[in-house]
Amino acid sequence: MAEDRFFELHIIAPERVFYEGKASMVELNTSEGEVGIYKNHIPMTLLIEPGIVTITEESGKKLAAIHSGFMEVLPTKVTIMAEVAEWPEEIDVNRAKEAEVRAERRLQMKDPMLNLNRAEIALRKAMVRLELADTARNK
After folding, report:
1. What is the pLDDT of residue 1?
2. End-to-end CA gap in the chain
3. Is the distance from CB of 85 to CB of 11 less than 8 angstroms?
């Protein structure tokens, strides 16, 4: 049966339950690199890095932006606790472009008083938002 290949997927952000449903696979960026999870995966927890999450459902694929958090993987259930989760249509492209420019300026300043790690993360988040918006627009 086709139903045997699906697991429960929950993506939770601080302000809402972002996604609840059945998926055959979920792909996203973690501190260990890009991973793809199928049903009956070995249990583990992973730190999430900013990136695009691809959710494969019976009806097709859904893309979203995920910005940091962690993931618990169990054989029949995956739970993602995300700092921020956004669908393509929720992204304000102009705001993301402005954030990208601000982060790039901070990185170029090389001021030891600035938190460069924070600027790098802000840049990655802006780039993920822009990539997702561009991907959705070109579909």
Report:
1. 43
2. 31
3. yes
Structure tokens at 121: 């993360």
82-99 confidence digits (pLDDT tens): 999 999 999 999 999 998
Distance, C-alpha 73 to centroid of its chain: 15
Q: How far apart are CA 49 and CA 52, in angstroms?
A: 9
Residue 1: DSSP 8-state: -
Cα–Cα distance, 108 to 58 (Å, whole number): 45
Give 62-117 as a DSSP string.
Answer: EEEEEEEEEEEEETTEEEEEEEEEE-GGG--HHHHHHHHHHHHHHHHH--TTS-HH
Contact assessment for residue 49 and residue 68, using Cβ atoms and an 8 Å cutoff: yes
pTM of the prediction?
A: 0.84
pLDDT digits 0-9 by tens, 1-59: 456 899 999 999 999 999 999 999 999 999 999 999 999 999 999 999 999 999 999 99
